[in-house]
């Protein structure tokens, strides 16, 4: 079975899980907007389209208002949803958990609803995607609400001058915080009320919303989600670099004009986020005075930094299919028997072994350039060795 067939089986399994398990808890409504990735060519200047999106994705009032009043910005958000889904699978394709469950948005399996490090990763990536997309849309002149970034405050060093059109990260970060965090903000206000509520007046919590230190798991999860959203935005902010253009006679570059710009592709930012993913910090509610998140495991170093991904509950190993945890397993997944690391057959197959098959592929070959100006190639059939997990 080829990779497309395996991915199809994964999605089918996840869809079955969506029927079997209670998928969306209150603290995962905030990323239901990722379901916009499958909205197609909808005209968002239509109130009916916005109303439909609100009903199907449970958008917040602020998100729905944005759809109605600023269709240009909302169209950028739609592209950010598509990019999040695509890039997440791309950067994690060689891991046991390969982000295939994000295809089910706006419905999610427990791997993205139970406070796992995978949920932390998706929250941060989604927040980063909105920030990145909006910042570049501002500098591209696509949005009437914003334009190029203001020149940096630090003076140039004499070898260049500030100019050009920098990506408007300040406006984009503020917008992303407003849009991505809006579904969580109303829940965060519950934290104070839960702390101050008399014990005798404590309302009965559901089986999935337990209380620790008088604070519900839902409220704890909200604080973690807001933190991870901020991690994504901070990562985009730290990715800004100077880009310059030379001016002068015959390309002498006697004068350089520079501006601050983001990487053109979200993949570069997502790759940096992937490096933090294995080092996510497990947290719990604690503190003798007041309410705060503490590391769940003793650590000699600092508690955690603003750039650390936080999660509440440990993840399964994703080796075997278990719809109760949102794991589709790795049976039938491609692996690489000639390498070490995440994509190796030893790791991907969880010790179950693997099967090697020879597959035929069609590739362009014997290409020749013709003046002027095209390239003509032949099609060659080649046999390649592919490994699949048992």
Briefly characterize the structure:
The protein contains ten helices and 13 strands.
The low-confidence runs, each spanning 5 or more residues with pLDDT under 50, are 17-27, 190-196, 198-208
Shape: globular
Distance between the termini: 12 Å
Mean pLDDT: 84
* Global Rg: 24 Å
What is the percentage of strand-forming residues?
15-25%
What's the number of extended β-strand segments? 13
Structure, explained:
This protein has 390 residues and is α+β, with helices and mostly antiparallel strands. The protein has helices at 3-20, 47-57, 61-69, 71-91, 117-139, 169-188, 190-196, 217-237, 266-276, 345-348; strands spanning 161-162, 211-212, 215-216, 241-247, 255-261, 281-286, 292-295, 310-311, 321-322, 327-328, 334-335, 354-370, 374-389. The strands form 5 sheets. It has a 3-stranded mixed beta sheet, with no helix packed on it. Strands 7-6-8 form a 3-stranded mixed beta sheet. A 3-stranded antiparallel beta sheet has the order 11-13-12, with no helix packed on it. A hairpin with a 2-residue loop joins strand 2 (211-212) and strand 3. Helix 5 crosses helix 8, helix 5 (117-139) runs antiparallel to helix 9 (266-276) and helix 6 packs antiparallel against helix 8 (217-237). The chain starts with a helix and ends with a strand. 36% of the residues are buried.
